[in-house]
């Protein structure tokens, strides 16, 4: 039986699906205890301290040819490597277009800072 994340990603192009799963591996390696939820309406996979939207600290958003790793309180995180993009009041994201970008310096540190901000 498929898991909810796999079901959610099934309709995306194989390269986007694979990229999203690789980003998920990175997130789960830093946040193994995080609550994972699939939100089909928002087209995201979210991670946080619990099931409520207010518990979320980051999300994966598959797009047509890329995958975003977003941070719910991205404007409150230090970003010495300038990885975070966006103009919203709180949200920031990193756009991945290839698996090679997942090894970019500073990603694990950003997830660790988000984890600390989320009070795990």
CATH topology descriptor: Aspartate Aminotransferase, domain 1
Strand proportion, as a percent range, falls in: 15-25%
Radius of gyration: 13 Å
- In the CATH hierarchy, the architecture is Alpha-Beta Complex
Total domain units: 1
User: Can you list the strand order of the major beta sheet?
Assistant: 1-2-3-4-5
Q: Helical content, roughly?
A: 25-40%
Let me know the number of strands: 5
What is the arithmetic mean of pLDDT?
94
Low-confidence stretches: none
Description:
With about 120 residues, this protein is of the alpha+beta class. The protein has a single domain, classed as Alpha-Beta Complex (Aspartate Aminotransferase, domain 1). The chain contains 3 helices and 5 strands. A hairpin with a 7-residue loop joins strand 2 and strand 3 (about 55-60). The N and C termini lie far apart (about 30 Å). The model has no long low-confidence stretch (mean pLDDT about 95). Pfam families: DUF1801 (PF08818). It comes from Larkinella humicola. This is DUF1801 domain-containing protein. InterPro entries: YdhG-like.
Could you provide a short overview of the structure?
InterPro entries: YdhG-like. Pfam families: DUF1801. The chain has 3 helices and 5 strands, in the order H-H-E-E-E-E-E-H.
Topology (elements, then pairings):
Blueprint: H1 4-9, H2 14-30, E1 35-39, E2 44-48, E3 56-62, E4 67-71, E5 92-96, H3 107-117
Antiparallel strand pairs: 1-2, 2-3, 3-4, 4-5
